[in-house]
Structures are given as C-alpha cells and as structure tokens.
Fold Fe2OG dioxygenase domain-containing protein.
Amino acid sequence: MEFLDKIFPSQIKIAPRPNYSPENYQKLAEFEKFNYDPNIHLPEYVINLKFETLYMKDIDLNKDEGYLKFRNFLKPGLAFTAPFKAFSEEGVKVLREIVEISKSIPQVNFHTKRQPWNIRGLGYMSDFIRDLNECQKLAKLASLFAGTNLSPFTYFNYSHINIGVPGSGKKVDQWHLDSVGFVIVTVLSDCENMKGGDLQVLKRDRDWSAIDLLNSQSDDYTPEEIFTVKYPGPGFAVFMQGSHIFHHVTSVKEATEPRISLIQSFMVSNCFEEDSTKFSTFKGGDPEHVSYTEFARLYAWRSKEMLDELINRTDYDEANKEERKNDGSRGKQKALKIFKMAIDELTNAYSLLNGEKDDTIGYIDDKTNQITGYDNIKIES
Ligand SMILES: O=C(O)CCC(=O)C(=O)O
Ligand SMILES: [Fe+2]
C-alpha cells in the first residue's frame, strides 16, 4: 500500500461533478488521446525528512484566540514546501502537449492586468485534466502537507496555467494572495538558463502592512523576508498556502522558451473548517455563466455537508442521555450550532451571488503600488 493510503485510508472527498459542460467549454476531441494514469504521470513520492519547510505557526502574526485554535488544529500546516518532484517525465510531456493544444483554443486563453497570460477551463474540456485534478494520490499528498484533508477546488480552476513570455517586460503574476486555500505550483518548462520568472513568497502570514516592503523589491534587491523558489527542473513543484502568504512571479527576462507553470488548487474537505475561497476573484475574471454556477454549487455542497452531519449523527443517543442529565441542552446546542453554520454559509453565498456582498482581496498592481480588485478588464495579449 502506498504510504499516502496508510496515512489517509479513506477516499478524499470530491464535490459532485456537474453533469453538463458550460457553453463554449464542451469536451474537445483533440484531448481524447490523453488518458490520465497516476502510475505513469506521477512519480513515486519520496518525502525527504530534511525537507525545507516553513510552518504557519512561525509566521503567524495573528494572535487572536480563535485563529490560533484553528491553526493548532491544522498542525503541522506547512506554509510552503521546498520543491519536490510532482510529475514524472511522461506527466510533464503530456501536460505540455495539452498546453500547446490549448493555446489555439481562444476561450481558454485569458489576458488580465494581474496575469498577462493564463489558461483556464480545461477541466471541462479534457478528461485527462479532470482525472488529474480528482486524483486521490495528488490530493492526499497535498493533504499531508496541509495537515488536514484537502479536496480539489472548482472545475474552472482545474490545472490553471500561467505563461510567461521572455522579454515581455511584464510580471507573470503580480503580488497577491490566492482566493483558494492551497495550491501545488509546478513548473513545466525548461528553466535552466532562465533569468527572471522567479516565484517569490513573503515569509509573513497575510500581512497587508508589508505592501511597502513588497513594492521596494526591485531587480537587484530582494528583501530578506522574501524567499525565491529555485526549481531544479520541469515537473518540480512547491505546495503552498497561497491564501496566507503573498507571492508573485517576476517577469521572464531571458529563457530558452516561455515559462509555463501549472497550478493545482485545493480547498479544505471539512465543511466546518475555515475556508479561504473568495468568490469575487472568480466573478471578476471568469465567464459569468461559469463562475456563478460553479460557486452556487460549491456553497450548496458545503451547506449540504453541514446538514448531512446533522442527519447522519450517531451520537444522538449519547447526547440525549447527557441531555436528560443536563436539562436538555447538550444535543440541542449541538444541533443549533450546525444549523447556524449552515444558515451563515447560505446567507453568505446568497449575498455574494446576488452582488450585495463583495469578498475581493485584490492584488498589488505594480504600476500604482495599490491594492486592485478584479474587474473583468481584459488586456491585449
Ligand atoms: O505561476 C506561478 O508560478 C505562480 C502563479 C500564482 O501564484 C497563481 O496563479 O496564483
Ligand atoms: Fe497565487
């Protein structure tokens, strides 16, 4: 048995699949030749005990009691890992072929102010991408790093790809916090002689006061608190809690080919844990007919999971016994707590989806040095 199956004996939860593909994102015949097989496309994972890591507890600035309790629960909670080999040679080869095909599909190519070129939406169009993102082995590896069970995030995010064109003078990605809790960021291109194109992270937890520090970073000066990821080669990845630590990717100055990176996104499986999802980011960037439906389903699933917990509880008898002893409060209190959480989840979803509420976290625009929201404004490629 794989060591990951020993640690996580039960299946990772996957949100129910949509039984349709949104308009413009139907299955594509050109992708049919690729069949995902973790035994071929993933390597044997070897965990190096001298793994270079940064623990959330070491960069926490937030000393709020509730927050610390949550963090304690998430032990060991790696903020980010050292690079590890996430994909086999064959895995890299297939993914690169998929990227090449995708470049000629207009509706999956996006050019935004934050990211000059990204590819999104492949989960609906390619079974390989769908199966990779729903792979138990990869999700269990991410769960091991996070210290809690993680599930794949929404379909349109499955295998988000960034492309950095050498000499474009544009950052591949501006300083930002992710709008999803956890990511595995893999480089697929040859970076051996690349200048620039560095993924850099700030070693502080959600510290907005660091904006000046981030903006002071220039080509020839990297403040000590900013860490540069050194990828040994294609197929190597880092796992990170991108929703907690600011990160960006510098512009590619020189390289033998464009920089290609692949982002696998994960959210907490347990509906009762804190969730870092920020709907407004996706609302502001993805096609409207996709983001609304995906997030309606996501919030509906999370609330359903909460109510299922209430329906499937096996400790009512015990709670009821206690209840008789304790004047009827215990079982009732537990039930009320779950109802309240489900109501809050739905109220939050309702206000976000109908536009009464905005949960944007934005990114730092390098032109203005200001936090900027996602406004659906596309730029010319
Ligand atoms: O492309 C990369 O290396 C990282 C990109 C990133 O942080 C993102 O897409 O959120
Ligand atoms: Fe990111």
User: Anything to note?
Assistant: The longest strand covers residues 259-268. The chain has a mean pLDDT of 87. The pocket of fe (ii) ion (ligand 2) is lined by residues 176, 178, 242, 247 (CB under 6 Å). The first helix runs from residue 3 to 7.
